[in-house]
Design brief:
The complex is a heterodimer of chains A (about 300) and B (about 425).
Chain A: H1 2-41, H2 50-53, H3 62-69, H4 71-103, H5 109-115, H6 118-121, H7 124-134, H8 141-148, H9 162-191, H10 194-202, H11 207-235, H12 239-244, H13 256-266, H14 270-300
Helix pairs in contact in A: 1-14, 3-14, 4-9, 4-11, 4-13, 9-11, 10-11, 11-14, 13-14
Chain B: H1 12-26, E1 38-43, H2 50-65, E2 68-73, H3 76-88, E3 95-99, H4 103-108, H5 127-133, E4 134-135, E5 138-139, E6 141-143, E7 145-146, E8 150-154, H6 155-161, H7 169-179, E9 185-188, H8 195-207, H9 218-232, H10 245-253, E10 257-262, H11 267-270, E11 278-281, E12 295-296, E13 299-302, H12 310-323, H13 326-336, E14 339-340, H14 343-352, H15 357-365, E15 367-368, H16 377-392, H17 398-416
Parallel strand pairs in B: 1-2, 1-3, 9-10, 12-15
Antiparallel strand pairs in B: 3-13, 4-5, 6-13, 7-14, 8-10, 8-11
Classes of the chains: A mainly alpha (about 300), B alpha/beta (about 425).
């Protein structure tokens, strides 16, 4: 009796695994291997000669020690934090405002909404190059406009002063990130039954109260998704900064992403580059876990 | 690090099996097998008309040597990573045309064949040619032409302001201040923290007796103070910390700068603006009578080690020899506005292209960036770039910026050995 019961079950298990196998193989090959390789690399003296000899001797914690002793690492960590928090606050705030704005239908709202998607469609490097021109201290459109409007008396050194460069990079990244935030939040807003808000209004809630106490709590799962995905794409920023400032001036916009690039591809010290890469992966992983948790919570409810 | 060039190669059968295995698993391309009859030359001549010119020169040399030659061009900043990837799969091209400052690293890694082994003699080579193509006394790369930096000025603007082209730092400072007016700055330079900016800082550093190995010396600090003062006095735009050398050229053409430091490779763009009456002269020196020492730049033709078929190295050597004869140098230099490394060719070039004669003089006294520090140049370059930007943006005084740079280099080199 028991024998006949377990045989089909075993086959069932096997079928399940066969379905999972391709995905698992894919993950191992394209995610597992590079990840493990990167960790191993961070303990190796991986240099130019390695490409010719195939030899990268293990050097213990040397790479880690060198990176943590490098004052650029601390600075990059701080810049990455400022960049990420600044970008997310700006992107999310403006994206949410626009989503709420567009959730009421009015003439031409569809067209305007699609126009606002444009920054999302432009490749990062192109956006960076264009903004570099816009923000140029002498010939940039932004300074000329500000001065024509008498908003500033002298040209603002957007990208040429270490005091402004990080701010400028954050502003450009906010501009790029608004469409993504707006679209997802707009989608989320459409899901909320209009009756709920109407009921709140009938109960005497003002627009602020109905937003913060009805709309926002209903939107919570979407907000988590937007913030975590936004975090993941912001924390690893590389292309935009390379195009805008190349990490400068005076390393004032150096982030973990640009530091990895610098160490690996300019200094050709792939071991130290891997260390910074690992730190970046670790940071992202923490937030990936938060994301998964939040998501699971949303599903069970 | 003395290392015999032909050690530590994975046996062919093993790498072939690994390749086949990888292929069957993920079906991405392995290194393509070499076509035995075609010789490949990899360079960074992606831009026209350079790509066509190079193609023509290679075809002619192929015909002379009796083989078919194929040109592979990749963007300059991807050339080294691409060559490294090819090296790890044993599929480097027969001839690799790399920048002189990258040569020591390839040579130190044992990736290049000493050119004397493939029949290229160093006899009669100019000092500049030897310096750019050698690593630890061994000649690995034949240069066809080199370039350096000069001071370009807008003749109309200078004449109008009654300013003579400056020859010393003092004169440069006075001229730049005099020429700064309204939207126009006196001088444009590149002060990026990467190769462009460092390359442009070297003439100031070296002509003043400074040295990358002694960044905190009085002479080195003075050089940085000199550049910083030009920005502080308003004769040079503070935006130079973000300008590539191509940007500098654009600013000069747009009339936003009366003078600029730049190289002869900007000529094709400058010539698109015939209304611009520019003249080039040597970079000003600290005191009258000093010798200007500018960095020498340019690419060299190298022959990567070919373990599978060493016979090809010899043919590759013949190709390199053919591509770098005095005639080939002169032909290429006149077309591409560079300076031939061959002494005689350089003299003939001076007569052919008199407007670029200052570059011939500049190259004569120039030195390569890797002459003293070899494979460690990148470490020095990054420290100098950081110091340059720190001083120009007012984050640090020239002295403390240079002291930090020196400490950084020492820490990094000390940590590595």
């Amino acid at each position: 009796m028991t024998m006949t019961a377990t045989a089909p079950r075993r086959r069932q298990v096997l079928t399940k695994w066969l379905f999972i196998a391709p995905a698992l193989l894919y993950m191992l090959l394209f995610f597992g291997y590079p990840l493990v390789r990167n960790v191993v690399m961070s303990f190796q003296d991986y240099t130019f000669a390695t490409y010719f000899t195939g030899e990268a001797p293990f050097n213990g914690l040397d790479n880690w020690r060198a990176v943590f002793a490098n004052d650029l690492f601390g600075a990059s960590l701080w810049h990455t934090l400022v960049f990420t928090v600044g970008s997310l606050v700006g992107q999310f705030g403006i994206g949410m405002a626009l989503a709420v704005f567009f959730s009421r239908r009015f003439p031409l709202s569809g067209i305007m909404r699609s126009l606002l998607l444009l920054p999302w469609l432009i490749p990062m490097v192109v956006a960076g190059t264009v903004w570099r021109r816009v923000l140029d201290q002498e010939t940039g459109v932004l300074n000329e406009s500000l001065q024509a409007l008498h908003l500033t008396s002298s040209a603002v050194p957007w990208l040429s002063s270490p005091d402004f460069a990080l701010l400028s990079v954050v502003l450009v990244n906010i501009w790029i990130g608004i469409p993504f935030n707006m679209v997802i939040l707009y989608g989320g807003l459409q899901e909320i039954p209009a009756e709920l808000r109407e009921a709140a209004v009938l109960d005497g809630a003002g627009p602020f109260r109905s937003f913060f106490q009805v709309t926002l709590p209903m939107l919570r799962p979407v907000v988590t998704v937007v913030l975590v995905l936004g975090f993941m794409s912001t924390v690893k920023i590389l292309d935009l900064i390379l195009a805008l400032t190349n990490g400068g001036p005076a390393h004032s916009t150096e982030t973990l992403g640009t530091l990895t690039y610098q160490l690996s591809f300019l200094q050709l010290d792939f071991g130290q580059g891997a260390v910074v890469g690992n730190v970046l992966i670790l940071v992202s992983m923490v937030f990936a876990v938060i994301y998964l948790r939040a998501n699971r919570g949303g599903v069970t409810r | 690090m003395q290392q015999h060039p032909r050690r530590h190669r994975p046996p062919r059968a093993v790498s072939a099996t690994a390749c086949a295995l990888a292929f069957s698993l993920v079906s991405v391309g392995c290194a393509a097998e070499r076509d035995p009859d075609v010789y490949t030359i990899m360079n960074s001549s992606t831009d026209e008309p350079y790509h066509t010119w190079d193609g023509e020169a290679m075809e002619a040399c192929g015909a002379q040597v009796g083989v078919e030659v194929r040109q592979i061009s990749v963007p300059a900043d991807q050339l080294v990573p691409k060559a490294l990837r090819m090296a790890s799969s044993n599929s480097l091209p027969d001839v690799l045309n790399i920048d002189g400052s990258d040569l020591p690293q390839f040579a130190a890694a044992g990736g290049l064949v000493p050119l004397e082994e493939v029949g290229i003699s160093t006899e009669g080579l100019s000092e500049g040619a030897l310096s750019i193509g050698s690593y630890e006394g061994e000649y690995y790369g034949a240069a066809r032409s080199v370039n350096s930096l000069g001071l370009f000025y807008n003749a109309d603007v200078l004449a109008e302001a009654g300013v003579e082209p400056p020859e010393t730092w003092e004169e440069l400072k006075a001229a730049a201040a005099e020429l700064t007016e309204g939207e126009r700055y006196g001088l444009a330079i590149s002060a990026l923290a990467t190769a462009d900016g460092v390359y442009q800082f070297l003439p100031w550093l070296w002509s003043n007796g400074g040295d990358e190995r002694e960044l905190s010396s009085e002479e080195s600090v003075e050089a940085l103070a000199h550049v910083t003062s030009l920005v502080e006095e308003g004769s040079v735009s503070p935006s130079v910390v973000n300008w590539t050398q191509a940007d500098v050229n654009d600013q000069f053409i747009a009339g936003n700068a009366a003078m600029m430091v730049n190289g002869p490779w900007q000529l094709p763009v400058l010539e698109e603006h015939p209304e611009l009456d520019w003249v080039v002269t040597e970079i000003p020196v600290p005191e009258a009578g000093d010798t200007p020492i500018a960095p020498i730049g340019g690419t060299t033709f190298t022959v990567p080690v070919n373990n599978e078929d060493p016979g090809r190295e010899r043919v590759a050597g013949e190709l390199v020899a053919c591509l770098t004869t005095a005639e080939a140098q002169l032909d290429w230099s006149t077309k591409g506005s560079n300076v031939p490394v061959d002494r005689e060719a350089a003299e003939r070039y001076r007569d052919l292209v008199p407007e670029l004669a200052p570059f011939v003089d500049q190259v004569r006294t120039a030195r390569s960036r890797t002459e003293y520090v070899g494979t460690e140049w990148n470490t020095y370059s990054q420290a100098i770039g950081t110091a340059l930007q720190a001083a120009l943006t007012g984050q640090a005084s020239p002295r403390s910026a240079m002291e930090t740079a020196q400490a950084r280099v020492e820490a990094q080199l000390g940590g590595r050995s």
